[in-house]
Every structure is written in structure tokens, then in C-alpha cells.
Amino acid sequence: MNDDLNREEILKNAPLLAKWLNLLFLLILPAILAQLLNNRFTMVHMTFFYALGQVLNFACFFAYGYILLKLSDVETSYHTAGVCNIITASLNVVIYLIEKNSTSIFCLVLTIPVVIFSVIAINKEYHAHSAVLSGVDDALSLNWLKLWKWYLIFLICMVASNFVIIIVPILGLLTTIFAMCGTVMVNIFQLFFLYRTAKTFKNISTHTL
Asked: What is the pLDDT of residues 122-169, one digit of tens each?
């Protein structure tokens, strides 16, 4: 009986999941472009492109949060992820507006909640993806949980490298490189898993029409 009910919920929500998850996938591409534009070189030498990257980054965060909120009708964890993304975007706007007129310490203080809300958003999003895939594609569902663990490992390495580099510079540098490469791999797998997740529900909704 429970399996029948679960199947009915999957069939009911498949079109909605396919639509919004596909938009999430497409939104990651401009978000990557925004990250490429947001660096020290563009901030100093190409201020127009740096500002463009910041605006694009804010827009992507707000849009990403909005889409996650639309998905919260299916899985409640999407709601928390969406709210945290919007809070992160709002704090980033504040940091951008005050960074030229405030001390670096004040901006650093504001960066701490940005990191916290970002981590919560990713945790809730990955677990939500895993939850909606449970009973549909258990292997992919498990992959989302594994991806969260790898994200957390590389995040811890990145934080630890800031302290290790003070004590053992070469080890700290290697840890930073390891964490950065790992973060890139997590982003690639997130893109791949998101595409597969959207495609899974698209196939289900197509077959039930």
C-alpha cells in the first residue's frame, strides 16, 4: 500500500520536479561564469567585469533560492535550502556595497554567516535531491549523499589549510590545492547529478502522459 502511495506521489510530482530541476541545472552555467569574473585581477584591473560578475552572482543566488522554494511543495528540505540561498545572496550584496568603505575585518565578520548559510543550503539541497529520488533511482539518491560528504571533507580541508599554512607553509599550500581541486570536482559532479536527476523525472513525466 505504501509503495502504491509512493508511486502515485512520484507520478504526480514528476512534471514539477522535471521543470524546476532542469532550470536549476541551466542556472549553474551562468553561476560558473559569475565565479570566473569574481577574482582579485578583475576587481583591480577590470572593475566593470568584476561588477558584472557580482551582479550576475547575486541574480543567480536569488534565482536559485526561488527555484528551490518552488520545489518545497514536494520536499520540505528544499524550503530551507531556498531560504538559506536567498539569505546568502542578501548578505553578499551588503558585503559588496560596503567592502570599499569599510575595514576588511568588518567584511570578514559578515563573511562568516555567508559561509554558514551556504553550507546549510548545500546540505539541505543535496539531501532533498536524495529524498525525492528515493525509490525512483536509489543509486543516484545515494550519490547525492556521498557528494555532500565529499563537499564537507574538502570544505574542512580548505578551512584547515588557513591554519596549517602558518605552521608548515608547504603543507598548507598542498592542502589548499587539494581542497580547491576537490571543490572543482564536487561542482562538476553536482552538475552531472543534477542533469541526471532532472532527466529522470522528465522521463517519468513523459511516460505517464
From this structure: 999 999 999 999 888 999 999 999 999 999 999 998 888 878 878 888
Non-local (6+) Cβ contacts of 148 within 8 A are: 122, 123, 126, 127
Task: Name the residue among 30, 79, 29, 37 with its Cα closest to residue 59.
Answer: 30
Which residues are CB-neighbours of 120 under 8 A, at least 6 positions away? 80, 81, 84
Task: Mark out the alpha helices in the chain (DSSP H runs).
Answer: 2-37, 40-45, 47-70, 77-98, 104-133, 138-167, 169-207
Between CA 7 and CA 13, with CA 12 as vertex, the angle to 5 degrees is 100
Whether residue 120 contacts residue 80, with contact meaning beta carbons closer than 8 Å, is answered with yes
CA distances from 192 to 18, 39, 91, 153, 166 (A): 15, 25, 29, 20, 36
pLDDT digit string, tens, across residues 23-57: 999 888 888 777 776 656 665 567 777 777 778 88
- Domain locations in the chain as residue ranges: 2-207
Q: Which of 84, 197, 72 is nearest to 144 (CA)?
A: 197
Give me the phi and psi of 112, to 5 degrees please.
-60, -50
Provide the grid cell at 171: 603543507
Can you give the pTM of this predicted structure?
A: 0.86
Helix (H, G, I), strand (E, B) or coil at 101: coil
